[in-house]
Amino acid sequence: MPEAREPHAPVRAFWSGTITFGLVSIPVDLFAAVRPRRTAMKMVDAKGKPLGRQYYCPKDGTKLSNNDIVRGFETENGKMVVVSDKELEGIAPDKSRDIDLRSFVPADQIPPMYYDRPYFLAPSGKSTKAYHLLAETMERTGRVGIGSFVMRDHEYLVAILSENGVLRAETLRFADELHTPEEVGLPKRAKVSRSRVTALAKEIARLTRDEVDTHELADQYAASIQALAESKEKKGKDVVRLAGADEEEADAGTSNVIDLMAVLRRSLSPQAKVTTADQFDAAPSETEPSRRAPRKRPAKRVSTARTRKAPKKRTAHK
Amino acid sequence: MARAIWKGALVLGKSTLSVQLFSAVQDQVIHFRLLHEKDRVPVEQRIIRKSDGQEVPKEDRRKAYPLGRDEAVILQPDELAELEPESSREIELCRFVRRGLLGDQWFDRPYYLAPDKDNGDYFALADAIDHAGVVGIARWVMRKKRYLGALTSSDGYLIMTALRRAEQVISVSRIEVPATRRPDQRELKMAEQLMSSIEGDFEPQLWKNEYRGRVHELLDAKARGKTLKLVAPKRKPAGGDLADLLQRSLTGTKERKVA
User: Fold this and answer.
1) What residues pair up with B12 in beta bridges, in sequence order?
2) A206 part of a folded domain
3) Between chains, do A120 and B23 touch, taking CB under 8 Å as contact?
4) Range of the domain at A110
5) Cβ distance of A80 and B40 shorter than 8 Å
6) Residue range of the domain that includes B211
């Protein structure tokens, strides 16, 4: 649902709950650990006037607000079943507010295919001792905790891991959400020539480095868009004022770096510093967002992702 | 057999290998539709001008790139078309790094690669990657978009996982924990014991999406005109002395079987 986004609304937790480790409970807030790509644009008309999304009833032509809209599921025989948010909440398992860590596994045992979305966990209780205890113990043992939980009408399998003393969650795909090689129809293993393996291994070795060069992982398309926009701005061409235009494509599961840092400083440590992998440091100017590279996007309200009937949330379940 | 979503050629130095791309993700999402409550008709989304509420047709819409707080620059359709990457069928393997150097935060959507013609070279590459203990970093253009991917091998097959961009991946510097908040040696020791009492291997098949199953049950019941009993989620009270809770957990796990 179109919703006015204030430029600097504080970041809100996606989910609040408790990690349980044996009988130890650790209350936490969950925040996205990815930023949106810097390719997201706003919708305007040809004159630059802000555009937004609006739901209508095609039958009687009325404008619809959130309160006029319900979720429906079309059965195989074409019947429409209406489901309320209350019903979906009501069928959540009892312990849906808990991430019960039922197993600790070596971190490198999880195939990357299972990785879905990363989050940070900030302690939300008065005492943070249990939080640090879990973080330190996992870091020492090189293990990650596995559990599941329900967040906004989805159940997630999740790995809880520790990095630099901070707890993170990586949601994982369930096994039935991944195809097997057989299902895809991959061929049976063919005979491999030793000399070909050696030749390819040589090429691999030639290109292998000990470190990841994040420049090689930079967003080239975002850079070219930004360059174009800035050159037009210099010429004063097509420059418009933006007030509350909706995003072209909403990417809900993302965080604002500056706001996230404020949360972690408050809950964890005043020294906590949040950076992106391209070394963009959010620390220096927390008041006036810099207009120049790297561009700081106006803070996006993470909370819009919570809007039940947001345009992208036509699907409710994994 | 699934349908390939794209065909291309992996390029590694002087070697070229024709491959097909298959999505590794199987959609299990329960798709809901948004309905107008009053007449149960699926809603329609329109793009309107915020100032006067008038619908704006597609040809009159533009994209504006925000610069700073409320300024933006309109990027015209022809200008954006010029920024589109040249189409190509090549997947360029430009770098390899040791496995483990790219953390979970980078990985986005996985695809299986299948050999298109030459099976031998396909499995040779999977073997070579496996033996070297590396991840390949690849670039390609698919459907007018640039992709960045990580090439790995699993059970002898090649997997390409789309990667997030460097600008998207957030990390937190190491934090200093004040002494008053730090767990003591005894607590750490007990926590480690507790962790090792429930350690195991990653066995994803053991985990079922129960909630998804319950939603299916709910929908089935409602379609048949029945109702399900609803339960409100409970919150577990937290509290107690940390050392005491750890001690009791340790005693508890001796009898308890872990899933």
Assistant:
1) B15
2) no
3) no
4) 15-55+88-185+243-306
5) yes
6) 182-233+240-254
Whether A66 is in a domain gets the answer no
Number of domains in chain B: 2
Identify the residue among B175, B201, B216, B247 best suited for mutation to test binding to A, counting A beta carbons within 10 A and taking the highest. B175
The interface predicted TM-score of the complex, written ipTM, equals 0.90
Strands A208-209 and B90-98: parallel
Q: Is B120 in the same domain as B10?
A: yes
Q: What tens-digit pLDDT sequence spans chain A (318 residues)?
A: 333 333 444 567 888 999 999 999 999 999 999 988 888 899 999 999 999 999 999 998 899 999 999 999 998 888 899 999 888 888 877 666 789 999 999 999 999 999 999 999 999 988 899 999 999 999 999 999 999 998 888 899 999 999 999 999 999 999 999 999 999 999 998 889 999 999 999 999 999 999 999 999 999 999 999 999 999 999 999 999 887 788 877 666 677 777 888 888 988 888 888 888 887 444 443 333 333 344 433 333 333 333 333 333 334 443
CATH of the domain at B107: 2.40.290.10
* pTM for the whole structure: 0.86
Among B17, B78, B209, B254, the residue to mutate for chain A (most A Cβ within 10 A): B209
Q: How far B216 CA sits from the closest chain A CA (Å)?
A: 10
Contacts of A38 in chain B (CB under 8 A): 167
Q: Centre a 10 Å sphere on the Cβ of residue B254 and count the other Cβ atoms it contains.
A: 7
Task: Quote the CA–CA distance of A114 and A111 in Å, as a whole number.
Answer: 6
- Distance, in Å, from the CA atom of B30 to the CA atom of B45, rounded to the nearest integer, reads 20
Q: Strand, helix or coil at A303?
A: helix
Residue A160 lies in a domain: yes
- Three-state secondary structure call for residue B104: helix
Least CA distance to A55: which residue of chain B?
B45
Q: Establish if A205 belongs to a structural domain.
A: no
Give the DSSP per-residue string, A221-236. HHHHHHHHHHHHHHTT
Question: For residue A278, what is the domain's CATH number?
Answer: 2.40.290.10
